[in-house]
Structure formats: C-alpha cells, structure tokens
C-alpha cells in the first residue's frame, strides 16, 4: 500500500441495526429487525418507498420511509430497480443510515455485533506533517474507541498505542485524541511521523 495516500476505512457492522419500538400486537417495546425487503408504491404519479422491519417476536411489520412522494424522474433508475428486486446492498446501506433513522424518529437498538472494515486507498496525498491519514466512515454509528480500533487494525500492542496517544501523535482536526475517544463518522485521523517512522513494519 502507498503510505503517501490517505486511507479510507469503512466500518461495517456484521449485523444490521434493529429498531426498538412499541409493537401493537406484543403490547410492549420490542426489537424490529431489518427484513431486507422494500415496499414500493407507484400507484399515483408519485412514488413512495419503504424499508420493511419486522417485530422479532410476532412478525408485525413497520415501514421505514426511504422516499416519500417523489417524482419518478428524480429517482435513480438503477436504484429503483434495486428497490424492486430487494437489493441486499440497498437494504444494508439504507438500513444503517443513522440520518434516516432519525428522520423516521426510530430508536436504534444498541448494536451488540462485531464489525469488519473495508479498507481502500483514496487519491488524496497525505499532509506532509502526517505519516498516515485515515478517513473513517462509520455510518451506522457503531460505538468504538479509536485507540482499540487502531491497535487492532495496525497490529500494535496496547502499550504502543497508549504511547502514541499519550505523546499526542494521534490527532483529528488539529487536536490530539484522548485514548478513550470514540470513532465518529467522517473523522480524519492523522498519525504524526516522528514515532511512526520507527514502526517500519507498519502497514495499513
Ligand atoms: Zn410484536
């Protein structure tokens, strides 16, 4: 991998988030799971699209609004086909979009699952002062500590990563990160050169 290019880490939960809501049939709060299926209503001139969630106890459905009363011309054709064929990728991307849950006033159940990271290289050259730049994408809002994430992904010991944090070598937005800092969607982590240079074996 080219160390002079900024890396992009997309954090993907192994299980899609569930929604906590009152189930009219169970008469209490239950977890509604992402069914992976869409409902498309194209009866009139306008199109509505929902992602269907189901109560994990009784299967009652709840529809999360994806597109509301949209003009067909404004809907991406490929995506529209995906909704009709219940595309797994679309169900996963819309089903982990925090903004969408908020818009639908849906409460996300705390994710208890593991995650994996899709790593790619961007075309952005790293800032000269930084040895390594990692742009984090965490659209599902998994609660992760930056120190644990970096230690795990860069194969560093806890004491090594602690030294980096204590020495102020790990920064984001010009500020040194504290070891307990959480990984926020969109954050750019920069790891300064001086210490990292001694980590010649380091490879992201
Ligand atoms: Zn139920």
State the main characteristics.
204 residues, alpha+beta, Structural Genomics Hypothetical 15.5 Kd Protein In mrcA-pckA Intergenic Region, Chain A, 6-stranded mixed sheet, 5-stranded antiparallel sheet, 11 strands, 21% helix, 38% strand, elongated, binds zinc ion
Structural class: alpha+beta
Query: What is the CATH topology descriptor of the largest domain?
Result: Structural Genomics Hypothetical 15.5 Kd Protein In mrcA-pckA Intergenic Region, Chain A
Helix content: 10-25%
Mean pLDDT: 89
Number of strands: 11
Level-1 CATH class name of the largest domain: Alpha Beta
Give the cofactors and ligands.
zinc ion
CATH superfamily of the largest domain: RNA-binding S4 domain
Task: Supply the number of helical segments.
Answer: 6
Structural notes for this entry:
A six-stranded mixed beta sheet has the order 7-1-8-11-9-10. A five-stranded antiparallel beta sheet has the order 5-4-3-2-6. It folds into two domains: 5-13 and 112-196, Structural Genomics Hypothetical 15.5 Kd Protein In mrcA-pckA Intergenic Region, Chain A; 19-108, no CATH class. It contains six helices and eleven strands. The relative contact order is 0.19. The longest helix is centred in the last third of the chain and has 9 residues, at 158-166. The chain is of the alpha+beta class and 204 residues long. Zinc ion binds next to loops. Residues 23, 25-26, 30, 55, 57-58, 60 line the site of zinc ion.
């Amino acid at each position: 991998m080219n160390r002079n290019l900024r890396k992009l880490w997309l954090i993907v939960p192994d299980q899609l988030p569930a929604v906590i809501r009152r189930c009219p049939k169970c008469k209490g709060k239950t977890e509604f799971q992402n069914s992976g299926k869409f409902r498309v209503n194209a009866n009139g001139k306008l199109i509505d699209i929902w992602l269907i969630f189901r109560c994990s106890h009784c299967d009652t459905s709840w529809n999360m609004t994806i597109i509301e009363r949209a003009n067909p011309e404004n809907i991406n054709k490929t995506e529209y086909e995906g909704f009709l064929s219940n595309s797994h990728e679309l169900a996963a991307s819309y089903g982990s979009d925090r903004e969408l849950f908020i818009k639908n006033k849906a409460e996300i159940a705390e994710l208890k699952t593991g995650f994996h990271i899709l790593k790619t290289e961007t075309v952005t050259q790293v800032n000269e002062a930084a040895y390594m730049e990692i742009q984090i994408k965490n659209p599902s809002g998994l609660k992760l500590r930056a120190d644990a994430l970096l230690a795990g992904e860069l194969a560093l010991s806890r004491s090594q990563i602690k030294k980096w944090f204590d020495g102020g070598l790990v920064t984001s937005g010009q500020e040194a990160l504290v070891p307990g800092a959480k990984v926020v969607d969109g954050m750019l982590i920069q790891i300064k050169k001086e210490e990292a240079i001694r980590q010649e074996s380091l490879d992201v």
